[in-house]
Amino acid sequence: MIDLESLLMKRPDYLDYEDTDFDNFNITELKELERDKEVQNVIAINQQMKYLQQQKMYSLSKLAEEGISDKMFQAVSKVHKGILDSEIERHLSDILKDSFEDKEELLFLLENKNKPFYKSSDIFDEYSSHKVQKVLVKDKLLSKRSIKKQKTAGQHITYVKQAKDSVDRISVMQSELDELKELVLLNKSDNLKLKIAYSKVSEKVSSIEDDLSETIRMLAGKINDQRKIQAFCMKQQDESLSNQSIAKILGVSKRTIERWLLELNTEVSTCDKNVA
Q1: Smaller CB count within 10 Å for the chain: N or C?
Q2: What is the pLDDT of residues 138-148, one digit of tens each?
Q3: How far apart are CA 240 and CA 119, in angstroms?
Q4: Among 141, 125, 114, which residue's Cα sits nearest to residue 77?
Q5: Can you say how many angstroms the Cα of residue 190 is from the centroid of all Cα atoms in its chain?
Q6: Rounded CA gap, 42 and 276, in Å?
Q7: Rounded distance, CA 34 to CA 44, Å?
Q8: Is 60 among the domain residues?
C-alpha cells in the first residue's frame, strides 16, 4: 500500500538545484528521454526489417521448393511411365536413360532422389488407366496406399520397378508353362501317330512281304537284321512317314535309318539289274 504521507514529505529532486542547475536537469532528462525513444524506434525498425527479410526469404524458399517439387514430379512421372512401358525384365539403368532426352533432368533426379517427395499418389492417379498399371493393381503388386508410403523419389521408383519385375517374372513363367503344355500335347499327338503307324505296319508287314517282288524276297534273304526290312517296308508303305519317325519306332537313330535305306535301295537296284 502506498504511503501518501511519506510521498508528500519527499523532497523533489529539482529543489536541490539552483536555477541554472534546474534548467540543466530538465534538458538532461529530455535528452535522455529522446535518446531512449530513438533507440526504441531503431530497435523497432530493425525488428521490422528482420521480420520482412525473413518473410521474403521464406517466400523465395517456398517458391524454390515448389519449383523443385514440380520438376521432381515431372522427372519421377517420366520414369514411372518408362517402367510401365518397358520390356520384360529391362534393367532400371536403361529405363532411366531412355526416359530423358535432357540428361540434365536425369542428373537432377539422381541428385535429389533421396530428398522428401510427397507426390507419389498423384503420379499413381495420373497413370491409373495405363494397362500395365491396371494389371499390377489387379495382381495386388501395386496400390495407392502402399505408394503413399514411399517418401522419396528413389523409394517410389524402386517400389514401381519391383512390382513390374514381379509381374514380368509371372509372365515369363506363364509363357514357359504354356510352351511346355503345347509341347506335351504335340508329343502326345506324335506318339499317338507313331503308335498308329507302328500298329498298321506291324499288321501289314507279313502281307507286304508276301506281296514283295522276287527282288525284295532275294533282298530279304540277304539281310539278317529284320529291322532293315521293316524300315524299308514302312517307307514303301507310307512315303510321307519321316525317317525320324521310323527311327523312333525301331529304336535307332535317324542317321542309321538313312544309312539302311540307302543300302537297301542300292541292293534293290542291284537285284533288279541281275533279274533283268
Answers
A1: N
A2: 988 899 999 99
A3: 67
A4: 125
A5: 40
A6: 137
A7: 15
A8: no
CA 78 to chain centre: 13
Q: Is 251 left (phi over 0), alpha (psi -120 to 50) or beta?
A: left
Domains: count for the chain: 2
Q: Does residue 56 belong to any structural domain of this protein? A: no
Burial class of residue 49 in the structure, from the number of CB atoms within 10 Å of its CB (0-12 exposed, 13-18 middle, 19+ buried): exposed
C-alpha grid cell, residue 215:
527282288
Domain that holds residue 217: 184-275
Does the pTM surpass 0.70? The reply is: no
Q: For position 14, what pLDDT does the model report?
A: 47
Number of alpha carbons in the 13 Å side-chain half-sphere of residue 226:
4
Domain boundary among 126, 149, 177: 177
CA distance 72 to 65: 10
Amino acid 176 reads: E
